[in-house]
């Protein structure tokens, strides 16, 4: 039992990094060597994006949606997930925006 508890304790002591934090660290390394500057600028951006999110969430509640299922290449899905993290949007919103742009060009 002590080995199991030791393993659990080791896992608890590990630093957990979210995907958003990992992206911020990677971007921060490219722009500057001081991560504290990057963190403070992210906090300022988060305040303005929170207002935008609340606005879009209210607008989204009025839109009728249909659940669909389709197959997608894994490389496209990974890129889509990364873009959703970077832009701080949900995947379905990115897909809707891309489809609206595509269908708008076809008219």
Task: Write a structural description.
With 107 residues, the protein is mostly helical. The protein has 5 helices and no strands. The protein has helices spanning 2-13, 19-31, 35-61, 74-87, 91-106. The model has no long low-confidence stretch (mean pLDDT 76).
Q: Give the fraction of residues assigned to helices.
A: over 70%
Give the low-confidence spans: none
Rg: 20 Å
Total strand count, please?
0
Structural class: mainly alpha
Average pLDDT for all residues: 76
What kind of sheet is the major sheet? none
- N-to-C series of helices and strands: HHHHH
Beta-strand percentage?
under 5%
How far apart the termini lie comes to: 67 Å
Tertiary shape: elongated
The number of distinct helices, counting runs of at least 4 residues, comes to 5
